[in-house]
Automatic annotation (TrEMBL), chains A, B:
Residues 12-55 form the HTH iclR-type domain. Gene3D superfamilies: 3.30.420.40, Winged helix-like DNA-binding domain superfamily/Winged helix DNA-binding domain. SUPFAM superfamilies: Actin-like ATPase domain, Winged helix' DNA-binding domain. It comes from the Bacteria. InterPro entries: ATPase_NBD, ROK, Tscrpt_reg_IclR_N, WH-like_DNA-bd_sf, WH_DNA-bd_sf. This is ROK family transcriptional regulator. Belongs to the ROK (NagC/XylR) family. It comes from Klenkia sesuvii.
Length: 393, 393
DNA sequence: AGACAATAGTGCAGGGACCGAACGAATGGG
DNA sequence: CCCATTCGTTCGGTCCCTGCACTATTGTCT
């Protein structure tokens, strides 16, 4: 009852992975692709159908001789939910095994000043709303937070100091779902390798420009965590000795060079609306991009400085991690058109052939929640027997 | 015949891993520890005995009631062989599954000036000698080279330029063994996590001081390779902008700061025997250590500079990889007593709590061959059925 | 000294999962 | 209208693990 069940699980997972990576196909082709027998595949598919994970689709094109096969495809019977708690918003996204977005919402919320308990209550209510408004059964929940996480507890959160020590999972206990809590940049990195132009890339570095600089590193297909869970933290790399003082108390941290604060300081005087933290960040970035497009010298110079600073740091990351691509998210993606050229120049001067390994994220602000939903769904692909039979209609 | 065999393999591997990690024990205890049945364990052990991988040992102490068990322990019926080809020597080491060294040799050889084919012939002859002079059956061969490797071909080798493009595995084709070729620092890193004080550490950074600076990174128990196989290459990190010119043509590379050349330049004038490349490196290092112990100001200052430089770079590595420990090998280990204090000071100033995460390698010059032998042995632990029955007496 | 409890290891029937071959089903071509 | 071809299912066989019964060996208690 122990090890043969594992064989079954592994083979169910193999069929599921095959359908996910290569799209719908007939049982006969599944048998070829997995190396299993047609008989076994039939049995496996029957079980997956019963669990609501796959469904029979259309007949295959009758273009050739022989009996046409019945396509087997992933079903949307279950979904994973990603929640992001950030400084000024709450985002939720649900993903089904096909990769289809089943829910997406974003709620402006002044998380920084509200009590964590209240924010968690709101978030959990939103999750309940998601689960009530669709037929896919939720199998898991992942919460992204802008800080370092130990287990399900926030350990550090520079921009959400009230949240340090909060057990985020406890806020969703009434959902009765497995809850994972993780760093937002890490989840974004996972999102990048799970969908979009860099799907299935095994080695990727994700950099996100927010107030600070966040990073997530995927090596060998696995998220780099490190011995204490803070691996891949790029913001406080000491790259430029003896420079500006960072919020962490040290000097020369990378985020003092390429963080949002550094950009705005370089691009605008104190009275400038760009530097008004009361205004919406996206609007300010749009204004900045407008000035750059209009050819404003100071703005262009500031952006070039950021781009060069990014290149200097990215050179270190490329040399150490050797990623297939460095993906820029957050404000870096917003202003990418002005950053990429100086970034590539600085990178090319330091690491050979690295200039064309930089790309802008196409996932926008949904990266973290998307990664979270993907993580929540992962156990289904790893072990399909975790989904009870007849989970869906 | 396909998947149930995999079950068998996995269970054989589980028993083997249990014995390796926890030492000899009775079948009954093996059953408890693996979760398998006593009957199954008996069957598995019988098969492993037949393959020469385990053997029955002494009776267990009759200190308590009940029938005493018969200890089952790893046997030395097979071995993995590690070969290191370096600038001025050829080293070979054989390891059996118990971790016992079955052979160890080191031959001074001017590899840099000899033809690769000749060196390979010598190396292969030594391997044949190893195999002839003991009863353990060789199951694999790993060759460490001081450079980057693609497949079994040397891609770059700063100190062995003649070897670029050489297919190292081809030189051992007559052995009829699976041959792996890998970077020496990578193998050393694996050696550090497979034996010694840091065995089973999942996240470790290994730094070796040679002519250049080599690095190997283990994250999550896996060697970091990167998308093109050059991950973890620390020598050419651009840390100090616009400084000394490196052999790679760029400026500010880390190895221009902490490489052997930098140390010797700082510690001795051109005429000094320390800087005579004709003399044995170990002797020169011993001389240097002697001067330092005698309190020579210039020597101490040079060493402190190296230590500080190491700390600056190590800070970046610790921040990014978050290793449990940074292990220093090569000449860093030789002169560790003079380097550790300034290194720790520089590290502590940049990353909190990192100072006690530095240690000196205890494997000395055998690290690379030891890691190679370990890698060669790995398939046996992963899938014990690869070893034919009655492989040993 | 003898009975009993405790622990180690083996033998055997049973069941789960996969494999291989044979069979019915559906389609295009001659 | 028959046949080749391909798809999917059914059925017997094999492998391996499990659970239980059984033997073997030792210490302890009476």
């Amino acid at each position: 009852m122990q090890t043969q069940g594992q064989v079954r699980s592994a083979n169910l997972a193999a069929v599921l992975a095959c359908l996910r990576d290569g799209g719908p196909r007939s049982r006969a082709r599944l048998a070829d692709d997995t190396g299993l027998t047609k008989a076994t595949v039939s049995s496996l598919v029957a079980e997956l159908v019963e669990r609501g994970l796959v469904a029979e689709g259309a007949q295959v094109r009758p273009g050739s001789v022989g009996r046409p096969g019945t396509l087997v495809e992933l079903a949307g019977g279950v979904c994973g939910i990603g929640v992001e708690i950030n400084v000024d918003y709450l985002a939720v996204l649900a993903l089904d095994p096909r990769g289809a977005v089943r829910w997406e919402s974003r709620l402006a919320l002044d998380v920084a000043v509200l009590a964590p308990a209240e924010v968690l209550a709101r978030a959990s209510a939103t999750v309940s709303e998601v689960r009530a408004n669709q037929d896919a059964t939720a199998v898991g929940l992942t919460v992204a937070v802008p800080g370092q996480v130990q287990g399900t507890v926030v350990r550090t959160a520079p921009n959400l100091p009230r949240w340090v020590g909060t057990d985020v999972a406890a806020g969703f206990a009434d959902q009765g779902l497995p809850v994972t809590v993780a760093n937002d940049a890490d989840l974004s990195a996972l999102a990048e390798v799970s969908a979009g132009p860099h799907a299935h890339v095994a080695d990727l570095v994700y950099l996100t420009g927010e107030v600070g600089v966040g990073g997530g590193v995927v090596t060998g297909g696995q998220l780099l965590r490190g011995s204490t869970g803070v691996g891949g933290e790029v913001g406080h790399l000491a790259l430029t000795p003896g420079d500006a003082v960072c919020g962490c108390g040290r000097t020369g941290c990378w985020e003092t060079v390429v963080g949002l604060a550094a950009l705005l300081r370089a691009a605008a005087n104190p009275g400038d609306p760009l530097r008004d933290p009361g205004l919406d960040l996206e609007e300010r970035l749009t204004e900045l991009a407008g000035r750059a497009r209009a050819g404003d010298a100071r703005t262009l110079e500031a952006l070039a400085g950021i781009g060069t600073g990014l290149g200097v740091g990215a050179a270190v990351l490329v040399a150490l991690f050797d990623p297939a691509v460095v993906v820029l998210g957050g404000y870096f993606a917003h202003l990418g058109e002005f950053l990429l050229d100086p970034l590539r120049a600085a990178l090319a001067a330091r690491v050979e052939g690295a200039a064309d390994r930089v790309a802008l994220s196409t996932l926008g602000f949904t990266a973290a929640v998307r990664g979270g939903a993907h993580v929540a769904l992962q156990p289904v692909f790893d072990n399909p027997t975790t989904v009870p039979p007849e989970a869906s209609a």
